[in-house]
Amino acid sequence: MTKNLKQKNNTTHRQKVIISLLIASLLVSSVSILANGQPSFARDFDAEIREVKKREEEAQSQASALGERGKTLEAELSRFSREKTVIESQIKISQIEHDKLVSEIEQTEKKIVDTRKALGAVLTEMSMEDEVSPIERLAGSENISVALDKFEYKNAVKSSLTDKVGEIREMKKKLETKQTDVSRVLGNQKTQQQQLATKESEQAKLVAETKGEEAEYLKYAESLSAERSKLESEQAAEIARRAANSGGYIAASSDGSNGGYPAVWANAPMNSYVDSWGMYSRQCVSYAAFKVSQTYGNMPYWGGIGNANEWLRNARNQGIPNGSMPKVGSVGVQLSGSYGHVAWIEAVNPNGTLRISHYNVNWTGAYAVWDNVNPSFFDGYIYFGEW
What pTM value is reported for the model? Predict the structure, then answer.
């Protein structure tokens, strides 16, 4: 009996805990709905877009760094190519000099052979004459003077040929020494040529690899850009669905004036300028700041704290009136997402819906006018005209 009572008490306690948790959950949900005025996006598009954009910028940065590295490598490759061209020219000169020396050595060797032959002939003749005594040669000669001259001439030729063979040998020795030097220089030059060719080949491979990596990062950045554009389109569609769910809206035709937004900002690429209040051009906050300044002349400088979802907090901090009721000439603030959205309230229609003008609702930096917008589309309104 006691055991059953304990089980019953435990069951009752668990039921109370579950009921309490359900009530607490409902209260939290109710507070959340009351605090926000409307549900947030199921997805945080801004966070996703910011993450994709971060990766896109990192990929672009890597591609840029690789592009610069590629330029440096190409400059080194050009230097190697120039050095190789120079050494090839030097090799041609050295080769010509080497070939010339080889030819001169061959000619010198031929001269040595020819001179030796001439000397051999003279020596042979003189040897044959040596078998006859000088007295006999003089006695057998009709003219003693001619015999003496002939004898002296042969001795002179012998001496000259002997000296010439020595000179030619010395010349050949010098030519061979020079040839050795030129061959050594030529060998060194060819080694340098081979080394430069290897460096050039390796450098060309590095250039190709770097360009390949750069192309891959650029391709990756392009895919991320496409992914970001898709997310931005999805976010724009979600904003449109949100407006439709809160009562719908009608995209009204524009008169081409862009709400008076200055042409210097309206006609320039998005984010190319920082406006007078610290906002990037063609953003929703820049247009809203312009409308406040144009209408009331009292738009604060909110550069650095000017994201759309910061405007209500900024207004409260500076004592600018704000509330939940839309008024003509007020700024509607949407808090959802990392950046939020702001728009200028052009009119409050008889049926309670709004006519608004705004920029960059679809991430293209374009001006748009919406009509029949439910006031619950915005989380609050800032009344700069009452400040």
Answer: 0.49
User: Is 148 within a domain?
Assistant: yes
Token pair in block for residue 6? 């304990």
What is d(CA 27, CA 350) in angstroms, rounded to the nearest whole number?
35
Of 353, 384, 26, 56, nearest to 232 by C-alpha is 56
pLDDT in tens, 285-311: 999 999 999 999 999 999 888 789 999
pLDDT, averaged across the chain: 80
Q: Which residues contact 329 (CB under 8 A, 6 or more apart)?
A: 295, 296, 344, 345, 384, 385
Instruction: Give the end-to-end CA distance of the chain in Å, rounded to a whole number.
Output: 74
In the chain, what are the helix, strand and coil shares in percent, each to the nearest 5? Answer: 70, 10, 20
Give residues with Cβ within 8 angstroms of 251, minimum separation 6.
Answer: 368, 369, 370, 371
* C-alpha to C-alpha distance for 236 and 59, rounded to whole angstroms: 25
Residue type, 178: K
Is 27 within a domain? Answer: no
Cα–chain-centroid distance for residue 129? 95
d(CA 214, CA 58): 12
CA trace torsion 191, 197, 203, 209 (10° rounding): -130
Stretch among 98-107, 118-127, 295-304 having the lowest mean pLDDT: 118-127
Question: What's phi and psi for 381, nearest 5 deg?
Answer: -135, 145
Give yes or no for a contact between 284 and 359, defined as CB atoms under 8 angstroms apart.
yes
In whole angstroms, give the CA distance from residue 31 to residue 52: 33
How far apart, in whole angstroms, are the C-alpha atoms of residue 303 and residue 24?
A: 40
Rounded to 10 deg, the angle between the 144-245 and 45-130 helix axes is 170
123 has pLDDT over 70: no
Question: How far is residue 387's CA from residue 368's CA, in Å, rounded to a whole number?
Answer: 27
Residue 239 lies in a domain: no
CATH number where 336 lies: 3.90.1720.10
Helix (H) or strand (E) holding 347, with range, is strand 341-348
Note whether 239 and 374 are within 8 A (CB).
no
Q: Which of 194, 229, 264 corresponds to the end of one domain? A: 229
pLDDT per position as a tens digit, 135-186 = 555 555 555 565 556 667 667 766 776 777 788 788 878 888 888 888 898 8
